[in-house]
Design brief:
This protein has 24 helices and 22 strands. It is an alpha+beta fold and 649 residues long. α21 links the parallel β20 and β21. α4 crosses α6, α13 crosses α23 and α23 runs antiparallel to α24. The longest helix has 36 residues. It starts with a helix and ends with a helix.
């Protein structure tokens, strides 16, 4: 290794992003500097400046003021006019953009230049705010993409080579210098450092990593150099899994927004029809002058346009998705955020979701003629050649206790029992509890019964055919599991557990976590049927799982949520949302955030409808002035957008 350290001098450093690359952080408020850098915001503000200058010089330089007004119209209205014309040409439909442009041009046609410019300015401003919400959401969701490493420093035969990320494979040894991005998922082979995982998991504080700890591509190394052994290719890494999520999240819109888009086209035709009827019909039917009829028609065109209604949904959903992404929860689209708000039941898979998914040794009990250290060292020496999860748990326990692994001979698997091998001439057998090994030993039978009641898996150890002891293991409960269940139930959400494990083990986990509904001994197809029953009985169901066997149930639920760190690629692909940090305590928060979003949408829509109805009535009954109509209508649009942006906090 000394030679490796020396070889680093003079070598080209891998191309990486700076260590201070911003990641998600909680409680982040709207960035007004970023808002001002938005091109649509700049156009809107430019239009407003032109309008104010034109209004100020109008009494003295009438012609110049008209030129400035035209400039204000062009600067603020060009983008919206282009969007409206594209909708008209491509989709043969009307939208709110064309309505606003027509109203502002109509106001100018009858001499109300300032009112038309004001309409353009406020309409452009509301559009810029909505665009900012969209950009902010996409930035928070896809900030991970900006952290994608491009190259890595691979150690080959004691030499350092810069290689492309795509060329890495499992087993490669990499050097990650302080401040660099970790290029691939792997395990720390040597070294220690703190890792900033905020971009992947949403954790606000760096995590200390030492030899044997997992690290993830796209996270930032701290102050120490790390030697990392690659465990997954670029495509199979955690970073690779979320690329699809980002693309899908930016493309999908909620069902309510789709309805609003269809409604907008129909409503726009009605508004245009009524506007033409006012212009052509009221002089004949009510005796209005043409100027009076045209003026009221322009006011109606402004106040009746559905700007605020159209802006009531997407800024809210995008803001909610953005704030969720900063806490490590990625949604594939606004539709799933919308469905999340209606959750009545959260169904957890047990292994890897409520529990850590990896068994750990909890009890080592020995007969009088065998010491604890002797038994654990011998058993670990035999199990060291096995990849079974229970075997790995025993080997890991021996490592924690610094017990040496000895040479094991004649190691073989025994069908129906377990594994055996010879250590220092003694034959050690390790296998499942079958009732014969402790038969007749009343005390040991009671111990086994107690351990089984605690939901533990028992392995019986014999040496040269004589009972030597017991090793009990259990999949450990996630530290936050009980708190997560309690939070959900305090919100009125029922909690269920779906597992393929035995009822006894499942009931123990349920008792310790507080889960009230337990469904055990389920095959993957049984989980699907149970999810369907829960939907029929209670309504909307959120299914949380991590394994390939959970994928059908995730698809059957109203919303499927996969575990980002420990979840399989299949589960993440099928899921509608991904919990990147595996912190199930965040589920209650995201349901609450989704419910806040739903309430905000309803408030926005009722407010928008009320303002439209009041202004329409005022136009025909109380002669609402065009400037008041502009401020009232476009002001309501800005208010509903700002109300949605509150969810960014």
């Amino acid at each position: 290794m000394q030679a490796i350290h020396q070889s680093l001098k003079g070598k080209q450093q891998a191309k990486q992003q700076p260590a201070n690359t911003p990641g998600p952080n909680r409680g982040k408020k709207p960035d007004f500097r970023a808002m001002l850098q938005n091109k649509e915001m700049q156009a809107a503000l430019g239009s407003g400046v032109m309008m104010l200058i034109a209004w100020g010089i109008a009494p003295y330089f009438a012609t110049l003021s008209v030129i400035l007004y035209i400039a204000a119209y062009a600067i603020g209205g060009w983008t919206k006019a282009k969007e409206g014309i594209e909708t008209l040409v491509k989709d043969r439909d009307l939208d709110v953009n064309l309505l606003m442009i027509a109203a502002s041009l109509g106001a100018a046609a009858i001499g109300y230049w300032n009112e038309g410019a004001m309409l353009i300015f406020i309409f452009a401003l509301s559009g810029a705010l909505e665009s900012y919400a969209t950009e902010r959401s996409h930035k928070d969701i896809s900030s991970l993409l900006a952290l994608k490493p491009e190259t890595a420093l691979r150690i080959e035969d004691g030499q350092m080579n810069v290689v492309a990320i795509e060329d890495l494979k499992a087993g490669d040894l990499l050097l990650v210098k302080p401040g660099e991005l970790i290029p691939a998922d792997g395990v720390v082979y040597r070294g220690s450092s703190s890792i900033n995982q905020a971009s992947i998991t949403g954790e606000s504080m760096p995590i200390d990593k030492n030899t044997g700890d997992e690290v993830y591509a796209g996270t930032v190394n701290g102050e120490g150099a790390l030697y990392v052994e690659v465990t997954k290719s670029a495509e199979g890494s955690l970073f690779g899994k979320i690329i699809k999520l980002v693309e899908e999240a930016q493309a999908e819109v909620p069902d309510s927004q789709r309805f609003m888009e269809r409604f907008e086209g129909i409503y726009a035709r009605i508004v245009v029809g009524v506007t033409l009827l006012v212009i052509a019909g009221t002089p004949l039917l009510l005796g209005w002058t043409w100027n009076e009829a045209f003026y009221k028609a322009m006011v109606f065109l402004v106040v009746a346009s559905p700007c605020a209604l159209v802006s009531s949904i997407m800024p809210v959903m995008l803001s909610a998705m953005s704030s969720s992404a900063r806490r490590g929860i990625l949604f594939k689209g606004g539709a799933h955020m919308e469905n999340m708000a209606r959750t009545q039941v959260v169904a957890f898979d047990k292994t890897g979701t409520l529990t850590m998914g990896t068994p750990q040794v909890t009890d080592i009990l020995t007969a009088s003629h065998v010491s604890r250290e002797q038994l654990l060292s011998a058993v670990a020496s035999v199990e060291n050649l096995s990849m079974h999860p229970l075997a790995r748990a025993i080997v890991e326990q021996a490592s924690k206790e610094n017990l040496p692994l000895q040479e094991a001979e004649h190691v073989q698997s025994i069908t129906g029992h377990g594994i055996e091998g010879t250590v220092h001439g003694a034959v050690w057998k390790i296998g499942r509890l079958d009732g014969t090994a402790v038969n007749g030993a009343t005390d040991w039978e009671k111990v086994c019964a107690r351990l089984e009641q605690e939901g533990k898996t028992i392995s019986v150890v014999t040496v040269d055919g004589e009972f030597a002891g017991l090793i009990a293991m259990r999949d450990m409960i996630r530290p936050q599991a009980a708190a997560a269940v309690k939070k959900l139930e305090s919100m009125g959400v029922r909690v269920a557990m779906l597992t393929g494990d035995r009822a006894r083990s499942a009931s123990v986990i349920a008792g310790e976590t507080g889960v009230s509904m337990v469904y055990a001994d389920l095959l993957p197809e049984d989980k699907v049927k149970q999810v369907q029953r829960l939907r029929e009985q209670y309504g909307h169901v959120l299914m949380v799982g991590d394994g390939v066997n959970d994928a059908p149930a995730l698809a059957a639920a109203t919303v499927g949520m996969g575990m980002g760190l420990s979840g399989s690629g299949t589960a993440i692909e099928v899921a509608d949302a991904v919990l990147m940090n595996d912190n199930i305590e965040e589920i209650a928060w995201v349901i609450g955030q989704a419910r806040r979003a739903e309430r905000t949408v309803k408030h926005n829509m009722w407010f928008a409808i009320t303002v439209i109805l009041v202004l329409i009535a005022g136009n025909f009954l109380q002669d609402v002035a065009l400037p008041l109509g502009v401020v009232g209508h476009e002001g309501s649009t800005i208010l509903v957008i700002l109300n949605g942006l509150r969810l960014l906090r």
